[in-house]
From TrEMBL:
Ribosomal protein found in the keyword field: no
Keyword set, alphabetical order: Cell membrane, Ion transport, Membrane, Potassium, Potassium transport, Transmembrane, Transmembrane helix, Transport
Predominant cellular place of this UniProt entry's protein: membrane
InterPro entries assigned: Cat_transpt (IPR003445), TrkH (IPR004772)
Annotated transmembrane regions: 12-33, 70-98, 191-216, 228-247, 293-326, 346-369, 402-425
Coiled coil: none
Protein's recorded name: Trk system potassium uptake protein TrkH
Membrane topology: Multi-pass membrane protein
Subcellular localization, as worded in the UniProt entry: Cell membrane
Amino acid sequence: MKWNKIRLSPPQILVFGFAFIIMVGTILLMLPLSNMSGHALPFVDALFTATSSTCVTGLVVRDTGLDFTIFGQIVIMSLIQIGGLGFMTMATLFSLVLKRKISLKDRLLLQESLNQNSMEGIVRLIRKVLKYSLVIELCAAIIFAIRWSADMPVGKAVYFGIFHAISMFNNAGFDLFGHYQSLMGYVGDPWINLTTMVLIITGGLGFIVLSDLISYRTNPKLSLQSKVVLSMTVALLTLGTLIIFIFELTNPKTLESLDWGSKIWGAMFQSVTSRTAGANTLDISSLRQATQFFIMILMFIGASPGSTGGGIKTTTFSVLLGAVIAMVRGREDVVLFHYRLAQERIFKAVTITMVALFLIIAVTMTLAATEEGSFLSIMFETTSAFGTVGLSMGLTPHLTSFGKLLICLTMFAGRLGLLTLAYALGPKKSRELYRHPEGKMFLG
């Protein structure tokens, strides 16, 4: 990794690095070797697929299981792994294997890519990230392979197991079952549901939290981030399961026709996958509008920092919620788990949320003017792209070339993070030499 000779900031290197990976993937997916038709895939479709794979989103304009050859599917799987763990993490893996020294510039890049506040122990964290990821994916692949060996040849079951383990742990949501059906054929299957949910949750917690949990037996102390992430994750998963179950219980197109076990699995699975992954066991287009809108809220919140998921992140939502509670109670400080948060954290949470809202509104309004579809389906697709979720109401395959490119940019912004893009593309930060006088105005 020779970043030292390049005069780019860490955010700029991350942006250009991800863009480079996407372009390489686009070229590979355009090859006739990648497509079942034997012809070159159109550039826009190849770019969309490469972007969705690298940004671990899962929105598709081509059927992954039917339109791509084994080679094309392996390209997609590789892009998911690189995009989920981060290209700097993968580059560090090669450096560690080749026993090369990790430079200060590399450590700064790793700090930026994992959204950490300090470089302390960053290489040690990367080792844990790689080890945990590979072990979790391997275990899940074995479980999937054993289960699917009852439905298909063993060789195909093993291949399906590896692909879906990587896809679900990295919260990508790509599947190989064809006809855009995802996992709807396994709505009541406890092995598939439980294994997939564990993959999605562990991939979406963030590697810092995952490390804290694994070392909890020897060091029974959780960091503030782990406490916030775990509590918010449990709250959102529980609330999501209840609301989806209640709203869809009498819907004949989703839960009503299922047995009680499948009803519970279906509601629980959709709650888990709506925040980060994009796989589904219920038909998203058949859900009630109230459920679809609630899923949009879950997609907007997303996963946790330093994870394979997108959205504004659970910690950002927790800070905003804490700020509201503090204001309602007339307190000056935002306190979470007996820790006072600095104002800079609160400003950052507000900034991330507002910029995300502006982006979703702008993209939704633009697509509403250029695409054919209901306003709710357009906003749903836009939110799914920003949150790198991948759930779809069926609009994505029918987008125009302009719509596909706009969704590509939205996925790219959602994966890298809006502040990272702003730091990379904006002017260099200058030091403030003075402060303006304080003004007062009425609010509310």
